[in-house]
Amino acid sequence: MTKCAECDKDFDVSDARDEYRAEWSAADEAGEYDELYEGALCGSCALSQTGSNLNAGQAIMMVNGDMDYDQNHVDMYL
Ligand SMILES: [Zn+2]
User: Fold this and answer.
1) Where are the chain's structural domains?
2) Ligand 1: centre distance to CA 27 (Å)
3) Cys staple from 59: which of 7, 40, 68, 77, with CB 3.0 to 4.6 Å?
């Protein structure tokens, strides 16, 4: 068992990896659990971290004009 750096919960890395993969497929822009969080974050923290990274990335694209601008999204994630 490993302790999650985010929520202090004990977790199993292979469970976290499975949980992550169930949500994001390897081909997604989200990236792989092993690449990003290897053993540092539990499944649910890794999922929420990736979710906020993706949302922040989209907000930056909106500001740069690479994506349709959504003020609410930008306010929330930047
Ligand atoms: Zn956690």
Assistant:
1) 2-77
2) 24
3) 77
